[in-house]
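Hello Y.,

Per our agreement to keep a running log of every chain we model this quarter, I'm adding this entry. I've kept the format consistent with earlier entries: sequence first, then predicted structure.
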Amino acid sequence: LEGYGGRRIHELSGGQQQRVAIARALVFEPDLLLLDEPLAALDRKLREEMQLEFRRIQRELGVTTINVTHDQREALVVSDDIVVMDQGEIQQKARPIHTYRQPRNAFVANFIGVTNFIAGTVRAVSEAGDVSILRGDLMLAGKIGDPVNPPAEGDKASGAIRAEQIRLAGDAAQLSKLDCMLAGTITDTIFEGERMVYEVACAAIGDEVIRVFDHDPAAHKQFDIGESVFLGWNARDMLVFR
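Predicted structure for the entry above:
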């Protein structure tokens, strides 16, 4: 903030005020810094810029920091480790990439990222961790999500599949190499700039809506509301939780 020393705090922008607040906390060289939603009041673009700035400051100064946040992206960007809590109980403590890719339970899978859940009954479980769940006449293949509390044959369970792991096509043949496939109808399309979000109602699961992310919409066919489509994914990407 060179050149801003003569300004009062209310004369600074939101991002500048946040930098001052962090500097005030760091000037005492604390062994531990506790922050409670430090970037919550900022608009999205500034918040994302400050996340990177905060990450840089943390690494330069090496101060152990506990950052309480409900912003999933912020947690993934600034953390060395993420602790996910529910009702005051720790659900998982892990590196950001492990928390995202290997959630310990359904709560963590739902809390971090956008996840679709398909409920069913477990029909088979292998020693290798493969699970088959039945929903009506539909059989879906997945992997055990929580090895500590694995589902058993006959259990009610849910398969969790992230929105970006689902492929969308107008022809079933295009998804023939994938392990799981569903037919559906586009109920909504949302353009978010860097990605297209589709909501698809699937008759085989009681017209429940599955959300799908296309992160390269310019390179793929665009679908319209009311259009019939097929969804597919690999069994390794669907985690089954009790």
